[in-house]
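Supplementary Text 2. Reproducibility record for the structural model of the 157-residue chain.

All settings were left at their defaults, and a single model was retained for analysis rather than an ensemble. We include the record here because the model underlies the residue-level annotations in Supplementary Table 4.
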Amino acid sequence: MQRVTITLDDELMAALDHFITERGYANRSEAIRDLARAGLDQAAESAGGGAGSVGALVYVYDHEARDLPGRLTNTSHGHHDLVLATLHVHLDHQHCMELTALRGRTDAVRHYAEHVMAERGVRHGRLMLVPGQLAQERHAHGEAGAHPHDHIHVRSR
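Retained model, structure tokens:
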């Protein structure tokens, strides 16, 4: 670990100390490390492109909208390389919420999420991305001689 000295004006220092108190950080270093990681993650997310990410897509939709549940399911199946799992929650007699875990190239994950959120009948949607590095790996699970297969892994930073 390296020690870094920075200079902050009084107003920014007061805002940082308030943030530290509100969030319950033990010290300024921990808070600044988390803020630096968040800023770097945001910059990596903005760069997008071929970088990898894992994401959580949360959306609420009207399950009585014409063919919407079927369209959403078909979209998910059509992107099985990105969709890891979906949790379906019944909110009331007409609305459902789905939380979909995604993994892949950041631009592909973002495109998938935008497509789902743009469907007629989807009322609210938000994508939360965690950037990382894509790694294609070939390996086998279990006993010796098991069939090797490829996996895409996203390593968080």
